[in-house]
Amino acid sequence: MVERFEQRVLRFAPLVLCLSLGWYAWRLGAPTGWGMIDLKVYWSLAPNLLTDQLYTIDMPFTADFPLPFTYPPFAAVLFLPLSWLPWVVARVAWQVLSLVCLWWLVRTALSLVAARSGQRFDGTWSRRAMVWTALALWCEPVRKTLDFGQINLVLIAGTFAAMVAARQLVAGFGVGVAAGLKLTPAISVLYFLVTRRFRAALWTGVGFAFTVAVGFVASAADSWRYWFELLGAADRVGPVGSAINQSLRGALSRTLGHDVEMTWPWLLAVAVSAVLTGFALRATVRAGDTLATVVAVQLFGLLLSPISWSHHWVWVIPLVLWAVHGARRSWPVLAVAAAWVVVTGADLITFLIDQQPTIWEIPRPWPLAALGWCYPLLGLLTLAVMPTAVRAAPGEPVGGTPLTTTSKAEPSVT
């Protein structure tokens, strides 16, 4: 019955995608009214790199929170061409690029599922990509990324493509460049290590060093200040306790009423997430499930980071695609996938933001503190169900012992 319903929907996949994009365009209105506040930070502050003032000049936003440039100097180098465009042109170009990256993210995830199932990425899979892109456009991390003009879709699509690239030089160097643009993709080295792609891990270091060198060439003063003075200052990035911060540190801080920093509650939570990640990676690597392994690594990175804004959780999209198309059909994994769809589709984070007096106030009533665990808790539950939800590798009996001596995950997309 489910397959029959899907086939009926897939017949209208191009129409579904067009209607979703059309509704989104109507909702946006004229480009002159698009806020895209984060893009404006990139666009307006990147040129300060040329005068060694990248981290000195902020962009006014609110009275208590001027917005600084928080990325490494290499990011400012890449944003310079964007800053040469008129503001309205820059907004339109970034929206189009982000939407293309959303489709690419969905297509890459489904390509991995199809390849692992021994199927060719044919018209049926292409139509699935259209339908899922149309739906993903309305989940909270994607909508906030687009509304803010954030870099997430561009960065995650590029990181994902690099991680699963067949050539180790391309994979590692690509991830290194992504980490030099914004530090969070550095967690992807864990994927190379657990899948024994050690040359890719080494190339990641080379790529990252390249971006640091480019930054020093562009502005030695700003590079020195970033790497030796500002690195690790989470409060400079934003309010740790705000509901939009969906990291373990943010959730624990709201629960306990103060910034827990790196004290024992945070260390305990990280230890729990590390154990769950370890079991998940052991199962996904043994099964050769590349998509599940990538998702497990990125979930761990989101939980571990001091700041994981809700729009950083775009990795939920390949997570749900894996749960629906790549995992075993069991009620735990389907329940977790459904929970992700409900939480991100209902935009619970916006409700929580509206309920807090200010972005800086950490203590809050316990119901709001409990709801503020939605992303971290679902992340932990996802890691917990992965070992039993991952499908057996080809040639391995379900729940049995591998029939081959090697079962490491192999990349399936170039």
TrEMBL record:
GO terms for molecular function: glycosyltransferase activity. It is found in: Cell membrane. It holds the Pfam family GT87. It is a multi-pass membrane protein. Keywords: Cell membrane, Glycosyltransferase, Membrane, Transferase, Transmembrane, Transmembrane helix. InterPro entries: GT87. The chain crosses the membrane at residues 9-26, 176-194, 201-221, 264-283, 290-311, 331-353, 365-386. Belongs to the glycosyltransferase 87 family. This is Mannosyltransferase. It comes from Saccharothrix hoggarensis.
